[in-house]
Amino acid sequence: MTIRHDPYELRVGVPSVEVFRRLRTDAGLSDKAPEAVALALPNTWHGVILQCEGEPVGMGRIIGDGGTAFQIVDMCVHPAHQGRGLGKRIMAALTAELERRAPATAYVSLIADGPARFLYEKFGFADTATHKSIGMYRLMDGSTGASRS
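Request: output the structure for the sequence above.
Response:
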């Protein structure tokens, strides 16, 4: 019988500002200003960092008010490590913490980019449109992609 070494370790916490920005951009997510990241990270309700032999290669965070509303954000895995079920590991850790600590009436949301929706559906997330809701957004620079009058 062959025993395979698993080089991946999931730990609770948030990365440094520099690592956070690198993980996001390496995974194809938008960059965030260092000042904004420095403000955001300490306000994480729960976060996890995925490491491969000590090097951060993925992360996920939960933000929210701690009672009624939570959002899963910054889910990413470096492209060189994708396709190994690592996003599933991150989501499992985040949802386990929600199930352990969040009130039963809490609303948990996320934005699913592309095929990531299939991962999130495995953890009980549903398209808001099926509930007569739509997700909306606004960037603070005023852009939304919507046409203006």
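The radius of gyration is 16 Å.
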